[in-house]
Amino acid sequence: MEVRTGLMLFLVFMILQKGEGQLSETFYSKTCPKLESIVKQVVANKISQTFVTIPATLRLFFHDCFVEGCDASVLIASPNGDAEKDAPDNLSLAGDGFDTVIKAKQAVENKCPRVVSCADILALATKEVVAQAGGPSWKVELGRRDGLISQASRVAGNLPEPNATLIQLNAIFAKNNLTQTDMIALSGAHTNLVAKKGLFTSDEVLFTNPASQPTVIDFAQNPGDFNAAFITAMRKLGRVGVKTGKAGQIRGCDASVMIASRNHDAEKDSSDNLSLAGDGFDTVIKAKKAVEAKCPKVVSCADILAIATRDVIALAGGPSYKVELGRRDGLVSQASRVAGNLPEPNFNLTQLNTIFAKNNLSQTDMIALSGAHTLGFSHCKPFANRLYSFSPSSPVDPDLDPTYAEQLKQDCPPNVDPRIAVDMDPRTPRKFDNVYFKNLVVKKGLFTSDQVLFTDPASKQTVIDFAKNQTNFKAAFVTAMTKLGRVGVKTGKTGEIRVDCTAFNA
Predict the structure, then answer these.
(1) CATH number, domain 22-237, options 1.10.520.10, 1.10.10.10, 3.20.20.70, 3.40.50.300
(2) Residue 445 pLDDT more than 50?
(3) In the annotation, is 379 catalytic?
(4) What is the pLDDT averaged over residues 134-162?
(5) Could you tell me which residues come within 8 angstroms of residue 200 by beta carbon, excluding any fewer than 6 positions away?
């Protein structure tokens, strides 16, 4: 999983097909009058869960329009890995962008079944993420239909490279009636990049080339000019290659999240699960579709998740191991059943041991599994008390390294945007290793429930062992993961083999 995707937006601009259809801002005024408010609420909920929603959705819209026109062809999943989204230039698209459209589509279908296209929902969601990120809002022209072609082979060469020159950028945009000013304005979406200068050559060239420099200076000095130009460019972009009338179709989106509930009362909707990144769900969905193409109605979603977990660990440099298989999928998914079954970030050792013991996992298992915090991220709220309100005598947790605490304060100031996230492991956040335990030894555990593993004498020696001996840690991790994979499994005639991981079988 690309942890920093939500903080960095790499926009690329290229459009293959030209053409404008008959679109209207009031297209659904009679058939789905509450469409925009439905999408707006879904987007707001999604953004509250993860900042990744904003750049991921915006980038998804650009990639969709740039290849086959704005027809949602980038959403199509292929079991053979040959759909548009599978092209090398699209593999970096974040799962949260897809998840945003999927959730919005589900909410819209609940009110207006088979009326609104995925293409229009993506266009509306893009407007909403821009507006909710503090950017301009605009009226979205609607009436697109979903495309019938989605091929990876049609993507290559149709997205500009990050080292493109101004001439190359202008040539790409001109094919689709987008001017140099449009191109520069759309490039302004890179404002979501955490940087103070152009990251790509194609960014920096906009300022270094005399032909575009005055526009860049104008936009830098006059936010109103930039916002107006951005709106104009986005509306023009939204018309590229659209299908209207009898062209294309109105389809249901091809992917969803694990058991999705229209009433938002499924297990995934629990407050403890809202921070789960869309990329994790997307991984299982894609794997399930590929498996179904070869072995229909045979392999459970539970087994696919277990295998995928092993593989992402191995690909991140962690150990590989044999996965016990034969699970069946459960028939219950309720948000109300989650509370009290997951460890909290402020747990002490006794509380951690108690909750793991319920699942036949020992203290050593618990410590080894905690080592998975060498990967991933956390929003600021779960550890804010360690920075600002630990105790009356010490606002900062004394078991937190002072330098690390200051770094965290910079990343997570008081009243920080709840979408901001930081790495669980400040040293090697994208590598599965034993550095997590080395961090604990020097007081750089992010959660109280992390650092307590070293400060409590009952668990300290295990942490020291894992910090010194990566082989011991990985062996213990494999043992713990195998035991975890046996917890509460359904086998034999219990449960079911879901055809779609997002829903119980009919």
Answers:
(1) 1.10.520.10
(2) yes
(3) no
(4) 83
(5) 10, 162, 163
Q: Residue 207 above 90 pLDDT?
A: no
Question: Cβ contacts of residue 107 below 8 Å, gap of 6+?
Answer: 38, 39, 41, 42, 262
Query: Which residue out of 63, 190, 264, 379 is catalytically annotated?
Result: 63
**Band (360; pLDDT cuts 50, 70, 90):** confident
- Containing 109, the helix (H) or strand (E) segment is helix 95-111
What is each CA distance from 363 to 78, 373, 406, 458, 459, in whole angstroms? 43, 16, 31, 9, 8
Q: Please name which of 149, 169, 150, 151 lies closest in space to residue 159, comparing C-alpha atoms.
A: 169
- At 491 the pLDDT is 81
Q: Could you state, in order of their start, the residue ranges of all structural domains in the chain?
A: 22-237, 349-484
Q: From the CB of residue 460, how many other CB atoms can be counted at a distance below 10 Å?
A: 16
Q: What pTM, to 2 d.p., does this model score? A: 0.55
- 256 belongs to an annotated ligand binding site: yes
**Is the pLDDT score of 16 beyond 60?**
no
148: number of Cβ within 10 Å: 14
CATH number of 349-484: 1.10.420.10
Question: Any known ligand binding at 252?
Answer: yes
Establish whether 379 is an annotated binding residue: no
Quick one: CA dihedral 373, 374, 380, 384, positive or negative? positive
Give the span between the Cα atoms of 417 and 194, in whole angstroms: 15
Q: Is 21 annotated as a binding residue?
A: no
Give whichever of 14-18, 44-48, 118-122 has the largest mean pLDDT.
118-122
| Mean per-residue pLDDT over the chain, rounded | 80
What are 415-438's pLDDT values in tens digits? 887 778 888 999 988 888 999 999
In the chain, what percentage of residues exceed pLDDT 70? Answer: 84
Indicate the burial class of 157 (C-beta count within 10 angstroms; 0-12, 13-18, 19 or more). Answer: exposed
304 residue type, one letter = I
Whether residue 425 is annotated as binding a ligand: the answer is yes
Strand 421-423 to 377-379 pairing? antiparallel
Q: Give the residue carrying structure tokens 């920093």.
A: 4
**DSSP-assigned letter for residue 92:** T
Do the domains 349-484 and 22-237 match in fold? no
254 annotated among ligand-binding-site residues:
yes
Q: What pLDDT sits at residue 358?
A: 86
Angle at 337 (CA atoms; ends 331, 340), nearest 5 degrees: 145
